[in-house]
Amino acid sequence: MFSRWIKFIFVLAFLLHTKSFTQELMPEHGPWTFLFQKDSVTAYFIWYAKADNKNDGVVVKLVNLNNFKVNYKFDLIFLSDTLKHIIKVEGILKPNETKTGSSQGLFWVPFKNGNSISDVGIHGFTIVPNSKVSQPQ
Questions:
Q1: Which of 6, 55, 71, 134 has its CA 20 to 30 A from that of 106?
Q2: With DSSP H G I counted as helix, E B as strand and the rest as coil, what are the percentages for the chain, rounded to 5?
Q3: Cα 66 off chain centre by
């Protein structure tokens, strides 16, 4: 009876350790690739082959870890072997909000001619706390 309890405790400890180890190996944001972080706002992306059944696409995820609303603005840069495409992106993130996908204006298919996306970059990532944004009078 005593050996059964030892075996049970050993197996339980092994399973708990294995579970915690696998959780440590899993990235916090799953398949999302880190793009940029500034002032507790982080940008990630996922690249999709044949997002529109023909051309590559990219979805961006923005995460606001602040307890206040922020305005964001940046240029998203897409490169292929021969082309460069820049998209201006701007908007507002509520406190602790995460935005992603086409419904949030964060999905693009930059090259409609079958060119593959070779690189995704970001330029001019600006974050302004919403309370500092001048309001129209």
A1: 134
A2: 20, 45, 35
A3: 16
